[in-house]
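In practice, a research group might receive sequence data for several interacting partners and want a quick structural hypothesis before committing to experiments. The following worked case mirrors that situation: the sequences arrive first, and a predicted assembly follows.
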Amino acid sequence: MIKFFFPLLLLSLGFNLLGAGEPATDLLKKYQPAMVIIEYYEVMPSTNSLQGTLRIKKETTGFLVDASGLIMTSSALGSGFSESLFGESELAGQLSLPQDFKVRRPGQKPVSGEFLGKDEDIGVAFIRAEALKPSPFITFTVRKPVEIGTEVYILANLGERFDYAFSAVRREVAALISNPKTRYLLDGNLPPDLAPGLVVTRQGQVLGIIMEHGISPAVAGMPLRATGFSQFLAGSEYLKLIAEPPQPAAADSLRKRWLGIYMQPLTRELADYFNLPQVQGILVNTVIDGSPAQAAGLQPGDIITRIGNSEVKAEKDHDLEIFKTIIREFSGDSVLLALNRQGQVLSRPVKLKPAPKSKFQAKETGSVALGFFARELTRDIILARNYPADAEGVWISRLEQAGPSGLAGLQTGDLLLAVDNVSITGIDQLSEIVQKLEAARPQMVKLFVRHENTTRFIFVKPTWEQE
Amino acid sequence: MKKLFYFFCLAVPLFAQNIDQPLLRNARDRVFPALVHIQPVKEFYFSGEKTKVQVTGSGIIIRPDGYVLTNSHVAEKARQVKCTLSDKTELSAEVIGTDPWTDLAVLKLNLGEAGLQNVPFAILGDSDKLQLGEIVLAMGSPLGLSRSLSMGVISSVDRYIEDEGEMVSPYNLWIQTDAAINPGNSGGPLVNLSGQVIGINARALIFGENLGFAIPANTARFVIDQLIRNGEVERSWLGVEWQEVNELARYSGAGNLSGVLVAQVEPGSPADTAGLKPGDLITAINQKPVQAWYREELPRIRLNIANLPVGSPVHMLVRREAQDHSLQMISAKIDKFYGDEFECLEWEMAVEEITDRIVRNFNLPAPAGVIVSGVRRGGKAHEAGLERGAVILKMDGLDIRDMAHFKELYQAAERGKAHLLQSLTGPSYRYSLIPAGEQND
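A structural hypothesis for the assembly, expressed as tokens:
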């Protein structure tokens, strides 16, 4: 009798735990405590005055992912701010990080949080709210692979618009893609209100998170929503980041690595043209000046065949992402590349560098009396403005449109090449010049600027404050 | 619309009573018979394919043997030009030459087609004598409505218009008038009450009302002469952009600063070679003092240099850091405005010559290769990854010097083999493999 009852008891217990027939309700009950609401401000420079800023209040949701109050949410947070060097860098828009984070569970008192950073390659942002600890948190299940057809629930807090109601939507895993990262497609698209949303199995295992911005094209290979599928990265892809989240304000210690080439797939046709014995490798078409690749002696036309011990292969554009990901997430500094240069097999050690700084990490200086602020010239700005790679000077990042320099004809995005006949070589030097000007208070200041492809002099009458 | 219509009905008769009606009629009768309605068929490349389109404009006969003055933007890239004279005679014309830098062009009517020996022509007046408020007539074919006349006054005689994309006018100061000027008026004459052509209508302002702009007759004279004689206007080039000095004078506390400021020196230009630098103040060119207090004075300085014969020695007196220097340079020929285009039928794309303007606008490292002006969707070049704006620098490992060299290589390229093109777009190079074509017999 006992033998018979025991499994039955277990079975009924199991049913009770998961809620007989309605697993969604139970799953929500289980994961609700790990879901938080995040309030923050995006800060935009005002075009009317240099001191003024526009603060826009935003709200999103996120998930506690460890015991220390670490919260993971979508990299859509602070959408005007991007650390990515490969996206379009807009000149207007935000120049500072999102600020003043407040985090709360629905119905509870908000606590303050700290913005740690983003990883746009996999579409996540991290915030830490220590006041929330100890807190329940979610743990990703590292189980692979999830079978196609597996029933999953997407759990989300619907936000202010729906009075912070919790929701659960049922989907099936429709496809598995393993390169360059493991990700799954769900059958059909999801309403945007469900992002970020937790993807859990009927049994309560957390598989991943549906992100608002999804996975960047650099990883997914194509814009996310274009396909009609919702997709999510396997939870295992987040584990490293959760263990070592981004450091706040770590301007000089970007974790992403940089080789400094542009490349294209080595197609069968190209391999035939080059008389190669096999179709295997990546064709380097551009070596960026001052890059680790250049220092290592790479040349346009080289075919990279191996990185370390692994074969490199790209027959189509999408395959390039695998190589890009390997480089960007490389754990060491030195890597050995095997090359094919016009039939010769070469081996080149490369010392990888951190990815070049973006405008967000660039230092800014300027003067209210002159009516402009300028930033160090970073690669994203050079690309966005199609300036030559060796362009000099600093760029005008903020401008009071009807201020002294704005009226004299200066525009946002212009390159500042000289002030009063002194060539500008960097942002610190400009700081010194501005300090001297503020002490000397000249009636007029002469700027030499480049606007697109023309240079000209701009004469500015500063508005010095009355002493 | 109705309100506007009534306004004209009332205003014209009232106005007419106050002015000398016979004078108006006289002016009209002197120029109207020389008016030409022009319908050129333009050929251009769209998505790598040759495309034709008919446009409409105006012109004025300036010589009894059938030379017609019009705008460059009306006649450029035209293979055939259909003209309708004032008496509705239809005949064709030949494009003698175009000058995009001033937006002027000269056509020659094929008078023989209509059995004509001579045609009525208009006389060019002296545009320097124009006065603000002087009554003028604009004639032409606004929006294709031929033989139309409108009246207004001279609103400004020295309007300076900044360059904008293809709309450049470094040598023009424009005549502004409130006589209605609409698309199709382009190339038509602006006429004074003596019946002389004092300007060529060329532009109007979008969203503006009664803001028309004409090229002064005195600018046109030199251009007409050059176009009829050489088929082009040869201009000298030094590679300098100028800037007015009024603000510099205020900055340096010099009340009566004279000269013109150097704003930009093109790398590799005659001025660059001679050592001219941005910030230099030029006080004399070829021993003649130069002065540009306001920017309206810049076109004249540009024109004086441009009108020198190519290869002329140019001497500049330069003030730099409170010292006078003397610089000598030899003027080069200004590069053409539009590069030649070439359709690569086999590869399903069109390419354009790299002009100095393209080097500058695309920030190219050097004037080499050819630029892709269009690719046919799904064609060989497109499939190989070439896009409009890519600069093709190498073919099968050989550097392409220029358009002539490219054509040579293209024509010699074996159709039965694949060919590798190396191109540059923005910061990145790319290899594009054009697949082997089928061998035609």
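Before designing any experiment, note the following. The two ends of chain A are 97 Å apart (CA to CA). The first strand of chain A starts at residue 35 and ends at 45.
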